Amino acid sequence: MIVKIKTHKSAGFKKLLNYMLFDKDRLFDDKGKSFVISHNLHGKTIDGWVKQFSLNESFRKIKRSDSTILTHEILSWHTKDAKDITLDKLKTMTNEYIRLRNFNGMFLAIPHFDKNHYHVHICASGLEFRTGKSLRLSRSEFTKLKKDIQLFQEQRFPELSHSVVDHGKLKPERMTDKEFQYKLRSGRDSKREMLSAILKTCYKKAISRDTFFELLKDCNAIPYSRSGIVKGVTFEGLKFRFERVGFGERWLERLEKNNQREVNLTDIRVRKNDSKKEITSKRTLH
After folding, report:
1. Domain count, the chain
2. Residue 117 shares a structural domain with residue 207
3. Are residues 39 and 161 in the same domain?
């Protein structure tokens, strides 16, 4: 799941709520049902919600010209998971997101669907409910939020496997947020994914570091060095460290071990053959 939080310095609640409720992309099922999650809000009208958001802003303790008045938060899922997504699943994950985000906040959430892409728009006050305390997240808190909601998704709805992205240390089978967004927009594999596939193919064929690097060159993935040590490749005009695409030093060390094992086996075979020839030669002489 991708989580985006856009901050706004002006009170544009009405404009955002109108879009969320009445845009053509609002999601309805085949029975004409949708959902609206209103957390620490009551009523069912935009004007009523706007008044409540505005009233909450009056509790702000520290007022600055660049204060965040509202946040527009978006939860997104990959198009390949569309067949496994339902309104109930979206609602469940959105409620859990709100709980993890800050249960004391003011949130209004509505699902949308566009180009086979499920997402939920959330309008939130920049403050907790009537405490005057900012709803702001630090970078580490935001990272933790993304990891926690994704863990919930993986445990509760493991079938949404294409919507799993990496919010921390990169793994070869995971995508970064940026790459996930690129796939949502274009439907194409990212350069890192393409390179990862090339690396895996070349690795399976290689018997040593040297042959691995030569195979990569044949695929237009040119190895580059730092301090005399190959650290990664240049591919499609970009540099990629091996670690970034899941090929750390241990993978290259394994190639060397396999190569050395092959050399040792070859040496043993040669000695055995020489020994057999010597025995055959002695027998012939006798």
Report:
1. 2
2. no
3. yes
Q: In terms of domains, do 153 and 198 share one?
A: no
Q: What is the pLDDT along the chain (286 residues), one digit of tens a residue?
A: 999 999 999 999 999 999 999 999 999 999 999 999 999 999 999 999 999 999 999 999 988 889 999 999 999 999 999 999 999 999 999 999 999 999 999 999 999 999 889 999 999 999 999 999 999 999 999 999 999 999 999 999 999 988 988 665 444 445 566 656 655 555 445 677 788 888 888 888 888 888 889 999 999 999 999 888 888 999 988 898 887 777 767 777 777 765 555 545 455 555 666 665 565 665 555 5
First and final C-alpha spacing in the chain: 80
CA distance 177 to 145: 14
Q: pTM for the full model?
A: 0.62
Question: Cα–Cα–Cα angle for 126, 127, 132, nearest 5°?
Answer: 145
CB 135 within 8 A of CB 102: yes
The residue to which tokens 């992205």 are assigned? 165
